[in-house]
């Protein structure tokens, strides 16, 4: 890694400038769920990238948010390094729990507070500033760079698959850094090699055409009970999903996966204390708890609504009810196939009256720990953070990385972000530590520098 001292010196000298750039982007709302500030954020991001020297193309998306694609050609390399990020953010609600206005960034006690600070604008800007450092110090980069930046990640990335199918050649690279993991509680860099898939489903049931007095319950069907009975058929007390064939294609963790789980630092007792739990579900513990978390399909009720939920009492039999359920998937489970199995299962058990709406669906994907790109990412993290990285074979969460990893066959790794355990992503008071943000920029210039060796 040549020239890092000069690059790091430039980064330190321009740290305040980089913080101001992050303020500018975080000040602009870009809430995909509310269609708020999207085009304004795209225009701002385009300006920032072009000011750095990155060639930008804006791809309009029918009935969706634009995709921003940036490219910078190297004068000395035929290889390409890709970056995936998103410019959209979660809604800031509940607003009364924020210490500071969510779209008016504030720095206090070495922390940068704003919606999007960690997820995902801090990560995105750190990568762009790394490019700025290279161009201003050396006038070139040692590898071709590609930036895939979507605006619907927080809404399930519904249009990203079509974009990838239509632009496979444009997106080709030797590896992709996904939106970045940060550091753990001990400051160790986190490297994650995959993500679960998901099917996010809404079930709706109807009863009478209007709410009626609950005394009519002996005669009038209650849609909330219909959903309760249906839900009881989806999963048992053993946490196993009851839908026939749901586990047919599940791939268990291999020896390398288990080794990484055994080596990963995980304070189980501290985690349970923070959650207020005496034990995890079914009493799992140790490596088995991590194996269950990362490699087991799930069926989770994420929201249930029916009837009156205000203060006091109201004896009502509701006219409608709905519940939202997310199914997390593991490698080789196919969302479309499983969704058909779900609908067939409901039909066979006489729940045809329930409306089933699929909001989003991803496949799971992961990159083998033995892949050379993983080695490059891990070695760089160890050098920059001076600590042994924590390598997770996959994540309990979900992201659309399968479109790059599985469809294009490109290794995908998440690393080098500015987040830390207290970043509060998706929650009020989202924040990053400024020291992590600057370290993230240095990691990015370091990973780019590996291509000049």
Notes on the protein architecture:
- The protein is 33% helix and 20% strand.
- The chain is an alpha+beta fold.
- The chain has two domains: 4-195 and 365-452, Aminopeptidase, CATH 3.40.630; 197-250 and 297-362, Alpha-Beta Plaits (2-Layer Sandwich), CATH 3.30.70.360.
- The strands form six sheets. Strands 1-2-6-3-7-18 form a six-stranded mixed sheet, covered by helices on one side. It has a four-stranded antiparallel sheet with strand order 12-14-10-15. It has a three-stranded antiparallel sheet with strand order 4-5-19.
- Strand 1 (55-59) and strand 2 (67-72) form a beta hairpin.
- The longest helix has 18 residues, at 121-138.
- It is globular, with a radius of gyration of 24 Å.
- The chain starts with a helix and ends with a helix.
Provide the fold topology:
Blueprint: H1 4-13, H2 15-27, H3 38-52, E1 55-59, E2 67-72, E3 80-86, E4 106-108, E5 111-113, H4 121-138, E6 144-150, H5 160-166, H6 168-171, E7 175-178, E8 190-192, E9 194-195, E10 197-206, E11 212-213, H7 223-232, H8 255-263, H9 268-275, H10 287-295, E12 300-306, E13 316-317, E14 320-329, H11 335-348, E15 355-362, E16 365-366, H12 372-385, E17 390-392, H13 402-405, E18 412-414, E19 431-433, H14 434-449
Parallel strand pairs: 3-6, 3-7, 7-18, 8-17
Antiparallel strand pairs: 1-2, 2-6, 4-5, 5-19, 9-16, 10-14, 10-15, 11-13, 12-14
Helix pairs in contact: 1-4, 1-14, 2-4, 4-14, 12-14
